[in-house]
Amino acid sequence: MVSQKENKTSSVQQLIANSRNQKTKKIVEKAMPTLLFSAAIISILTTFGIVFTLIFETFEFFKRVSITDFLFGTKWLPFSGNEPLFGILPLIAGTLKVTLIAVVVAVPFGIASAIYLSEYASEKTRRIVKPILEVLAGVPTIVYGFFALTFVTPLLQEIVPGLKLFNALSPGIVVGIMILPMITSLSEDAMSSVPNSMREGALALGATKFEVAIKVVLPAALSGIVASVVLAISRAIGETMIVSLAGGSTPKFDLNVTDSIQTMTAYIVQVSTGDAGYGTTIYYSIYSVGFTLFIFTLVMNLLAHYISKRFREVY
Questions:
Q1: Ordered per-residue pLDDT tens for the chain, 315 residues
Q2: Which of 193, 200, 220, 235 has its CA 20 to 30 A from that of 49?
Q3: With contact defined as beta carbons under 8 Å apart, do 165 and 150 qualify?
Q4: Where is each ABC transmembrane type-1 domain found (predicted)?
């Protein structure tokens, strides 16, 4: 009799506990969509807030400076006491020089590394090498900047005659090293997702392993590879500390990579450190430069999305 009463008591307690658990689960299920929706809305509102701030302050700048002079001017002399000049082309030229050098360094080595990891490396080697590359991507950019200034530049001065202490070549190479892990990792992921049946079919037809990698796997993974390259270019365009430390602060509208330059991000850093007072034309110029940089990165991201979608439809 006692054991029966104990069983009935434990059964009732279990039913009560189950009922409470069910109520808790129902509350969580009802609350989670609202919480997740709130998180999404906060992200969207934050993005719109940043964009509207850039647009508003940029319009304030263009009330003082002609948009034609800004877009097509070839001299950027905002601190000139007599007649400040705000032609954005020298800053764009400096940014593009660094970015192009970075692409020349990162794309061949990044894709080659991805092909090795995907098609040639053993599983053990892949587990060791890939995390090392991904750790390289986590190195603070200011460390890369000092590396470019104190190691890469003196080394290049022994090879390239006339190379100045501040130049476009050294930060371009180091930015390429910085974005290389991004290209390697994303491209390797894209190649690894290619079905093995495609590799086996090509090998069965007499193709070599290299031919399979270049003529089968690479085209099949092209959407992911191109997207990784475009995203890496966006990262290179927006790089700040490396170009600020090793590039210099002399905006020039030319193709010379051995002389001092200034990129859009480096100019923003220069003014933000206190070289201009609040409400001045120079102060508002950082928003106009920031908005130009935003347009560049937005176009690159849209291009990456389009290319990825386009090539995915083909293959």
A1: 445 544 545 565 565 555 556 666 677 677 777 788 888 888 888 888 888 888 888 888 888 888 888 888 888 888 877 788 888 999 999 999 999 999 999 999 999 988 888 888 888 888 888 788 778 777 888 899 999 999 999 999 888 888 888 899 999 999 999 999 889 888 888 888 888 888 888 888 888 888 888 888 888 888 888 888 888 888 888 888 899 888 888 888 888 888 889 899 888 888 877 666 777 888 888 889 989 988 888 888 787 777 767 666 444
A2: 235
A3: no
A4: 92-304
Q: Which of 10, 230, 281 is nearest to 99 (CA)?
A: 230
Residue 198 tokens, joined: 């495609």
